[in-house]
Amino acid sequence: xxxxxxxxxxxxxxxxxxxxxxxxxxxxxxxxxxxxxxxxxxxxxxxxxxxxxxxxxxxxxxxxxxxxxxxxxxxxxxxxxxxxxxxxxxxxxxxxxxxxxxxxxxxxxxxxxxxxxxxxxxxxxxxxxxxxxxxxx
Length: 137
What we know:
By secondary structure, the protein is mostly helical. Helix content is 81%, strand content 0%. The chain contains four helices and no strands.
């Protein structure tokens, strides 16, 4: 029975990985179309700050998708959750939020967002300093 459950989990993981790859492909194509459209609309190169933030937000969204795919691939290989990859995805997602959000409209939450970023960075640092990461002497 356990063999069937493991096979089922493997199929589900492959299905999730393929669907995520499709989403990342669609996001990348849409990102390319948006870049070309922005270049065509502004031949002088004058792009507003909001458009730049939107471009970087879209780019970070693609990177989040790629990192999530990497975490699923890692699980398929070792059947272990790689906490470091999950923390990196969370940091990229919060960074994207910090770039995309308009701080003037979101002043109360900006401090909370900054604290979350610091907490995730500290968690990542602590994970890297752990006993399994220490260098042999």
